[in-house]
Amino acid sequence: MVRFHFETNGSFQLQYARGDFVELLISSNIARYSEFRSVSRVLTWLNEHLEVVPCSRSDVFSNNKVSVIEKRMLMKLLTSLEDVEKDLSGCKDKTYHNYLKEKKLTPNLIHYVLYAISMSDNNTLCEQGIKQTRRFLGSLGRFGKTPFLFSMYGSGEMPQAFCRLSAVFGGIYALGQPMKGLTISENKFKCLLVNDQKLTAEHLVLNLEHAPKQFVDLKKLEYISRCVLITDRSVMSSEKEHLTLLLYPPENDKNSVIMIELGTLTGTCPKDLYLVHMTTRQKTNPKEDFLHIINNIFNINHKDTESEKPKVLWVCYFSLPDFLSSDVKQNVPDNVFLGTGPDIDSDYDFSVKQAKEIFSKMYPEEEFLPRAPDPEEIVIEAEDEEIEDKDMADKQTDQKDEATDGEVKQKAETKDTETKQKAKTQDTETLENVEKKQVDH
Fold first, then answer.
1. pLDDT tens per residue, range 259-307
2. Using CA atoms, how far apart are residues 19 and 291, in angstroms rounded to an integer?
3. 264-278: buried (b, 16+ CB within 10 Å) or exposed (e) per residue?
4. Biased-composition ranges for Acidic residues (predicted)?
5. DSSP 374
6. What pLDDT is recorded for position 227?
């Protein structure tokens, strides 16, 4: 029996190459615990076909689906949007879609910028759309052709990286321990009841999903639809394996969808198979939300052996609560803090922002995640201490040797003096004897 191993995380994220999360990994030195691959191509669904999105300057001018005039229009727009000092006051009360139409862009260019580059939709406000476009453009060229990075072996490696750093400095993790209850006194958290143990702490941080009902007043809960597929080939065939991001635009009454296709080079699936993750804001239920995409891009009819579409070998649909987009009111004790958990965004930047806010409330005088020393630096410090100890020991040994030498020298001098005194006494006695003999004669 052949067994295959897949890393099917319930949540998948990409990272902007110059996003807050990547900058935090670098500044804190946690990056040494993680590995990334650059997303090698960005696709979109345009005119009933998959098309490559021209991300960089070279992509724009090498794209044969874009006319020369369109290339100039697109480059002019992207260059103007890169200017962070540009006044956005004229964008108020206007959608990004209308803003792009006012720039006289063709429908194809509007599609590229609105749905792919800025990951927006027709209702996205102009100011937000421009910020998201700048975010995309600002991360281009740092680590690859596209702005995005993916964590090797899946998103589950990211918490592990932070756990490793915490463990180095004495952090303790107790996994799979059910929380039976907690004690609150004078509007402050006192202790947790875990199994038969009481664990006291100054602060308590909880995922909102696992918080007691007394802490959360949930008016309306929104959900994220998720789908995971295993397929036998890539959505767009190529000579080499690609790490693909597909940005599927809104269609009829369906929301836009973010899809990422992972191959064996990401460490998430075996060779010649692909792992596909899709996510969108839930409209009805996960299966209905993704049905149009699966029908357009994949082959779910196993009897159709002539289809060139990737064949779906396995599929899983599920929902995740989206507390960030929900109407939630928190009513927590003074030293309890709630995190929102997974959201619809494709990265962890909001999680970084939320973590900083919670940390600043808990420890207002402390620096958030300062740089951790390299192992070599720790070893060097230890060696310095050993050298100091050795120098001290050598100094003490030298002092001891000097004292011993002085004592030996003193004893030798004393002995020499005694010997000379004894010899002198003997000479005196001998002389007296000689004189006595002479007198007797």
1. 999 999 999 999 999 999 999 999 999 999 999 999 999 998 877 878 8
2. 32
3. eebbbbeeebbbbbb
4. 375-389
5. P
6. 96
Report the Cα 151 to chain-centroid distance in Å: 8
d(CA 249, CA 247): 6
What's the pLDDT tens digit per position in 172-195?
888 888 888 899 999 999 999 998
Through-space distance between the first and last CA atoms of the chain, rounded to whole angstroms: 130
Q: Which pTM was predicted?
A: 0.80
CB 43 within 8 A of CB 236: yes
Quick: pLDDT tens for 362-372: 999 999 999 98
Question: Which residues, 6+ apart, have CB-to-CB distance to 118 below 8 Å?
Answer: 96, 124, 129, 130, 132, 133, 136
Q: How many other C-beta atoms are found inside a 10 Å radius of the C-beta of residue 248?
A: 24
Side chain identity at 413, as an amino acid letter?
E
User: Can you read off the two tokens belonging to residue 198?
Assistant: 């009481």
Distances (CA, A) of 403 to 220, 391, 392: 85, 18, 16
Quickly count: other Cβ atoms within 10 Å of residue 245's Cβ: 24
Q: Report the relative pairing of strands 49-52 and 41-46 from DSSP bridges.
A: antiparallel
Phi, psi angle pair for 256, to nearest 5°: -65, 155
User: Distance between CA atoms of 258 and 115, rounded to whole angstroms?
Assistant: 10
Q: Mean pLDDT, to the nearest integer, of 43-59?
A: 90
Residue whose tokens read 């709630």:
338
Q: How far apart are CA 105 and CA 206, in angstroms?
A: 47
The residues that bridge with 193 in the sheet, in sequence order, are: 181, 198
DSSP structure class, residue 125: B
Q: Distance between CA 396 and CA 181 in Å, rounded? A: 59
Question: H-helix or E-strand containing 149?
Answer: strand 148-151
* Beta strand ranges found along 186-335 (DSSP E): 188-194, 197-200, 204-207, 216-231, 244-248, 257-262, 274-281, 312-330
